[in-house]
Amino acid sequence: MNPVVAPPLRRVRTDPRPPRDGAVRGPEDDLAPMLAALSDPDPVVRRAMAKTLGARRDPRAASALEASLGDPFPAVRASAAESLGEIGRSESHGPLETTLEDPDPRVREQAARALRAIAHPSSTGALAARLKDPAPEVRWAVAAALGRMHTPTAFQALLEAIDDASDRVRREVVLALAQTDDPTVVERVRPLLNDPVRRVRTAAAVVVGRFRDPASVPLLLERMDGPDPWERPAILVALGKIADPRGVPAMVRAADDPAHYVRVCAIHALGEMRSDRARDVARAHVTDPSWAVRGAAAVCLGSVGTPADLPTLLIMLEDRNPWPQSAAIYAVGRLDLVEAVPRVREELHHPNADVRLASVWTLGRLRDDGARAELVRMLHAEPSLPEPASVFSEGESIRISSDAASRIFDTVVEALGRLRHGDEDPFVDQALWDARSQLSEEELDRMARLPLLAGDPPATAPTLRILFETALPMDGVDEEG
Predict the structure, then answer these.
(1) How far is Cα 433 from Cα 439, in angstroms, rounded to an integer?
(2) Is the CB of residue 430 less than 8 Å from the CB of residue 422?
(3) Residue 143, number of CB atoms within 10 A of its CB
(4) Phi, psi of 350 (to 5 degrees)
(5) 138 and 130 in contact (C-beta within 8 Å)?
(6) CATH 1.25.10.10 intervals, the chain
(7) What is the spatial distance between Cα 102 and Cα 95, in angstroms, rounded to a whole number?
(8) What is the DSSP letter of 447?
(9) Which pLDDT score is estimated for 421?
């Protein structure tokens, strides 16, 4: 095999590395005047500085902010509590628990929010006592905090608050109960499917779907025929998770709902339960006027499609919207349609990161030898560091935020590992070794960022180091180390 010289690697990082917790920390002499400003005679200055210190997330400011919880002005105390939550220092839970008794409800609310961020189990008792607070905004924040405690005391307190007079509190209690692994919560949550307020009903649908409660199906189907279309997506998601055949006719009808967001959820639900009707419904919607529905149809075909869907998926590769286009590429990979490889290879140059990511994953899964050189090029061109999430498709009341650009590098490494030919592939081996040598030990030990595919069971992601060790000849790992 003729050796091929890989292109020179770009520098992976040239700027100073920020702290792992995202803090922006200055030298000690920069912090001192800021802490002093917490004692300024003007409460406006004190409040502004409390918020500024929270934005810095500097643990050294925690003690001073804890002292500000006793400030005579409620706005300052509330900002100090909020900032302690931003900093998240575990030792601050004690002063914040005391602040739950503050006479001002704004301060109590911020203290509960901060305790939610810190999530110290010993705060459970103090929080549970405030579930009867006269201010609904405090009870709401307390319920959200108890949802993160995962203790028997928190669980029991939430159950007792499930009939709160405030619909906002009821909704938060239900969503907090969804965090538990105790299926007995369903018996208390199920009646809320008939709550007079929609957001409580939709939260209840989330819970019964999470626990796959078949006894909830009649209530869900009854609500599906109600006049409120905004309620139907949560019901459809729940029916898809419960996977009860009684829900299939309603899902099929919903796939033709006038509201595109209802059609999207109906198709996803049918695909998740792998209903016999899912394939026909998905095929009927690949030309839907809504890009979101076309994308849902492609995702569904990736789960329940057959080789006979290859012509349809190739047509969807020409879609002008990147969401259905990338979904069709993933479907090609999941259905092992190797005949589409040459067409998918063309999308490695697509300007949209989601389409490129789908193409890399699919070509790696299908072990396309013709993609090796282009994948090596991408190994040098795509960033290995996290990139800001971007909006790649919006409109029709749907906005999709994507972090695909941050997942391409790792997915290229995984794909090249599938494509290498052992000791007979020095081109790929050298490119992988060069890329690995540019990464710090910290970067190698982070969790790998790979595509998250709808319908796949959750899996434990490997580290980036494991991806490289899987891709590279094992006899070189120790020597390189």
Answers:
(1) 10
(2) no
(3) 31
(4) -65, 140
(5) yes
(6) 183-276
(7) 11
(8) B
(9) 62
* Digit-coded pLDDT (tens) for 97-152: 999 999 999 999 999 999 999 999 999 999 999 999 999 999 999 999 999 998 89
**Ranges of H-type helices in 88-197:** 93-99, 105-118, 124-129, 136-146, 152-160, 167-177, 185-189
pTM, whole model, 2 decimals?
A: 0.79
Domain 183-276 CATH assignment equals 3.60.15.10:
no
Instruction: Give the whole-angstrom CA distance, residue 218 versus residue 196.
Output: 18
Encode burial over 279-292: b for 16+ CB neighbours within 10 A, e otherwise: bebbbebbebebbb
**What's residue 31's pLDDT?**
87
Residues 137-171: pLDDT tens digits? 999 999 999 999 988 999 999 999 999 999 999 99
Both tokens of residue 181?
A: 């692994």
Q: How far apart are CA 243 and CA 262, in angstroms?
A: 18
Distance CA 255, CA 274 (A): 15
Looking at residue 457, what is its pLDDT? Answer: 54
Task: Determine which helix (DSSP H) or strand (DSSP E) holds 283, and give its type and residue range.
Answer: helix 278-284
Query: What are the tokens at 331?
Result: 């479907």
* DSSP-derived secondary structure letter, 214: G
Greatest Cα pair distance, the chain, in angstroms, is 78
Q: d(Cα 299, Cα 84) in Å, to the nearest integer? A: 43
Low-confidence ranges of the chain (pLDDT < 70): 1-29, 383-400, 421-424, 454-460, 473-481
pLDDT value at position 478? 41
Contacts 24+ apart (CB under 8 A), 152-160: 153/124, 153/125, 153/128, 154/124, 154/127, 154/128, 155/180, 155/182, 157/124, 157/127, 157/128, 157/131, 158/131, 159/185, 159/188, 160/131
Cα 335 → chain centroid: 25
CB neighbour list of residue 308: distance below 8 Å, 6 or more residues apart = none
Do 316 and 294 form a contact (C-beta atoms < 8 A)? yes
Which distant-in-sequence residues (6+ apart) come within 8 Å of 219 by Cβ? Answer: 190, 193, 194
